[in-house]
Write a structure and sequence with these properties.
The complex is a heterodimer of chains A (about 475) and B (about 300).
Chain A (H helix, E strand, L loop, with lengths): L4 H11 L10 H14 L6 H11 L7 H12 L3 H25 L17 H14 L2 H15 L8 H12 L21 H23 L23 H21 L11 H8 L20 E7 L5 H13 L6 E7 L3 E3 L1 H6 L3 H11 L11 H12 L7 E6 L11 H10 L2 E6 L13 H5 L3 E4 L3 H12 L5
Parallel strand pairs in A: 1-2, 1-4, 4-5, 5-6
Antiparallel strand pairs in A: 2-3
Helix pairs in contact in A: 3-4, 6-7, 7-9, 8-9, 10-12, 10-18, 15-16
Chain B lengths: L10 H10 L6 H13 L3 E4 L6 H12 L2 E6 L6 H4 L1 E3 L1 H11 L5 H8 L5 E3 L1 H7 L4 E6 L6 H13 L1 E4 L3 E4 L5 E6 L7 H5 L2 E4 L5 H11 L5 H16 L8 H14 L6 H7 L7 H22 L1
Parallel strand pairs in B: 1-8, 1-9, 2-5, 5-8
Antiparallel strand pairs in B: 3-4, 6-7
Helix pairs in contact in B: 1-2, 1-3, 10-11, 10-12
Classes of the chains: A alpha/beta (about 475), B alpha/beta (about 300).
Amino acid sequence: MPPPPNRTAKNAAIYGGIPDHPPGNLDGQLLSFAEDLRQEGVAIGTSEILDAFEALSLVTWTDQSDFKEALAATLAKSNDDRRVFDLVFDRFFFRATEAQAARERITEAQAGGEPPGDINLDTLRQQIAAALRDGSDAALRDLARLAIAAFGRGEGSGVLGVDVQRIRRALGLRTEPQPDLPDDDPRHDGLPRDQLRKFEQHLRRELERNLIERTASLPPKRPLNELDRALPSGPIQDLAAVHRVVAQLKRRLATQGHELKGHNRHAHVDFRRTMRASLQTGGVPVALKYKPKRPRRPEIFVLCDVSTSVTSASTFFLSVLHALHDAFRKLRSFVFIERISEVTEVFEKERDFRAASEAISRDAGVADISGYTDYGRVWLEFLTTIEDELHPRATVIVLGDARTNGRPPRDDVFAAITAKAGRTFWLNPEPRLYWNYGDSVIAAYEKHCTAFECWRTDQLEEFVKALTRPGAA
Amino acid sequence: MQTVTPTPQSPQELATGLREVGYLPGESTALVSYLATRLGKPVLVEGPAGVGKTELAKSLAAYLKRTLVRLQCYEGLDEAKALYEWNYRKQLLRIQTEADNAGWQDVQEDIFGEEFLLPRPLMTAIASEEPVVLLIDEIDKTDQEFEAMLLELLSDFQISIPELGRIEAKTQPVVLLTSNNTRELTEALKRRCLYLWLDYPDLEHELAIVRLHAPELDETVARKLTEIIHQVRQLDLKKPPSIAESIDWARTLLLLGANDIDHDTFIKTMSVIVKHRTDLDTVAARVGVALQQQDASAA
């Protein structure tokens, strides 16, 4: 049923509407798909696009997986890229189909998908929970549509996320066990988290489809959820995943020394060894001997904010550093909220990321009353405890969001610390976009140190590389 | 050796062909290999150790009835070992035998001929009369300079030798590069390749692989074996078991004549799939105990 024209116009203004002319043939579509991928940070050159066209001429397009794999093999050139590719692929072709359907005014009802009249709500709950437990993707999608038909009547709140959660609650789907339900109910022992998330995705997609149909307009394109690329941010984070990241980092750090072999041209001449060698050639220095480049093994002091907003990033960072401890001459770690506390021993004993983070929250005793970070006091305490040990070859790393909660930043004390230490780095687990907004005072500290964004594993890797790169010092 | 090399007409045909030579390809594996044979582009295969990256190259060679030329990469691999080298001993001999009566010009032209060239794997692959499958294994072990050197070969299938000129490929080789992802490869290299990510197969797929390589093993045992392997991979291990290790384990069970995997058999044979002392403890604690419970409930 085409909506009345005045409403379409209004909604079009809100959502951006349907592009007037379809972007033409397949070539145009593919190019805009590639453009989408580029926007999400996948490096795609002209040669890749040409390859993609060539590859597509060799496969049958009626098979979706062949079509997708052919594109993936030519466009996405690493496992990370492949993950982004899958997400963008789904989003792009979902939007393209919906736009086409809206343009030609095809709606669900016309297509023959008559919604069933009466739905027994309790049976539906049971069915969905059972499908979640057994995990059939197609069944989940159908049930998501039923659930919307049953619980998602009307216009909804207009915010998809809110509607999704409302329906989920109405269905009584939870990950934690619900002991008051009868034993044979699939929800009794709680539902698998991945499955539940998948179901929510289906709900969201179906709701979006409904919205597009109602308003005859495409919502603005959402950039990819950064969650997939972000550092582990909650206690639910799979421990094995964390260890995989660390193992990867370790291997890469172990190999990086060799990549630098080619950069030895600017090495310093070792005069003594050159003269010694020249004796073989009668005192003429034929072969120059160079000073070997030694990998930098810095002494490191780490200060990590463990207040709730950044705690998981901190613990993760600390366990990465401690997993790499043999790359450093000395490593001492401190955590702080309102005061500081040394946790080096915790990490030396605890190889396990989760156990370490529990031990810290239990024993460190860094929060006094409010639980809000007090940078001024932390700098003072750090300076008094450690002043004698700071020297120009020491590296100080601070991890925190630089949000003072309105307390004085005391950047003068921070400056005193940086003056004593050789290098100071600041890792901010917030995207640079949010820096210096609200109570963030990173600008005051940035004058005295080098600040890095650090909220994705690749950023962390870049930083650890910079830290261990052989060079002056 | 003038055999007819098959040219697959569709990914399905190639998949069937690979299956005949004992390799069960996943959907994307078959498709990318098909594209590689048709487009003549090298394929970069990445994935965890032991998922059959090298095996894919061998099977492709067997299916396409081509010779496999393999270059195993390692740190410090250079042109002389990968491309070509002048056979200087032979050159010296030549100069000595002709020293008296030949002019310098003649000798110089003579000793830098193909006769004095020692071809290394890459050169062999390029100069071969018959089309070959070239496998460049563990490319991530070499340094970036070597990667740069490969670029000419991978995009144009030719090698420039300063003294001789350009040697172009007589036939189009199928090139596979494998990497364990220990370092990021350069953009330039990736740009020239198709990309294939090989991961651990899902349960049914792996079961089929195990059944293919150990057909005498009882189906229920094979299923239980793959299920356990999948459980073990979920754990946080230093080295998760690969497909090759599942097959080894299946063969071990056959040798021992085991007709069920109970707790005892598992503890006795698990060193076949887990190869770190700390990993052994973890696996024994987690999977072993689960098996014990199963045994108890079965009894």
